[in-house]
Amino acid sequence: MDKMAEKAATRHLQTCGIQRRLGRKAQVTLTFTLTANLSQFVLSAGYMVTGEGGVEFFTDTDVIAQNTSSFRVSATAKEVGTKYNVLAYMLNSLSQTRALLLSPIPNLHRADWMWKPKRKRRCVAIKQFGAKRAC
Questions:
Q1: What's the number of domains the chain is made of?
Q2: Is the pTM of this model over 0.90?
Q3: I need a surface site. Which of 13, 22, 26, 46 has the fewest CB within 10 A?
């Protein structure tokens, strides 16, 4: 879209009370795998994982994995932008080598600021005026 048309469309939407939202950084859940089942493994917040196209994600929290060979941690993109909406399994490089930490690290879901896992919905039959009705 050329700049003039984009500006006109934006102005029209603003007169209708619709405003463009600011972007948010993409988020993803990473699964790290260890070479052995350890009694304790510590991964600090801010650990960088990179992917194709040079995208960088940083872990959000410190993780202390106990008696496990794998663990999950959430990570956030370095910047806002569509290039950070990466597909599953595209974040696959460690920023620094860590003993007992395997590479690559698959992101099992796509990294996207809009993605949320589907919630399971349960439907319960209810009685209303003596009749059963599905919700």
A1: 1
A2: no
A3: 22
